[in-house]
Design the sequence.
């Protein structure tokens, strides 16, 4: 009986109140070190990264993109048309002929996106929507390789900062971001009362201050 009442109470509370949050992570792009460290993934698996910036470039390699990824081919094309770039992590195929794609990410300049909100940021900031690694290659720190590649991309294209958001519940991603030297600059939240009848969101000026504080 107590278990039933507890479940009922949780459902009532969820209907009355809900809170979603994501942590804001920022990295200032510094000059490259004389001896850049390499990871076991890049050494042992031969991981390399490429950037796709146009629909035509994506069509050249899209048959090699494994699915299910979060984005379909059509969605990646739409992202590219919006001005995003796509980072692809690849490794040599076991046959020794060609490469297989094992991870990807979506980057977009001068924006911030979290919990369904979008806003403009200065043009020197590159926002990473997310990174995704195919399941069999997770846990090998391939995301570290991709983040170093994004740093190089930023240097080559005039971006002086990278920004992203991470769920507080994603412990693996949090550890990866801290290990990569990103700074937890703040939190963006959305509080909903009475099934969305009343909604509070982190003010945009607070988000901007959190991002700019690292610059």
Sequence:
């Amino acid at each position: 009986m107590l278990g039933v009442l507890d479940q009922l109470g949780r459902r009532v509370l969820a209907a009355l109140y809900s809170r979603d949050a994501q942590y804001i992570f920022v990295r200032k792009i510094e000059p490259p070190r004389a001896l850049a460290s390499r990871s076991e993934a890049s050494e042992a698996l031969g991981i390399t990264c490429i950037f796709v910036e146009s629909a035509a470039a994506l069509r050249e390699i899209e048959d090699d993109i494994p699915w299910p990824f979060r984005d379909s081919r059509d969605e990646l094309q739409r992202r590219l048309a919006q001005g995003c770039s796509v980072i692809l992590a690849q490794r040599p195929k076991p046959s020794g002929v060609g490469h297989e794609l094992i991870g990807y990410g979506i980057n977009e300049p001068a924006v911030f996106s979290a919990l369904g909100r979008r806003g403009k940021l200065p043009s020197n900031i590159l926002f990473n929507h997310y990174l995704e690694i195919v399941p069999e290659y997770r846990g090998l720190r391939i995301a570290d390789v991709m983040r170093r590649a994004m740093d190089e991309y930023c240097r080559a294209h005039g971006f002086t900062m990278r920004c992203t958001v991470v769920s507080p519940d994603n412990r693996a991603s949090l550890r990866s971001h801290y290990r990569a030297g990103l700074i937890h600059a703040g939190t963006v939240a959305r509080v909903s009362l009475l099934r969305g009848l009343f909604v509070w969101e982190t003010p945009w000026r607070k988000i901007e201050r959190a991002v700019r504080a690292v610059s």
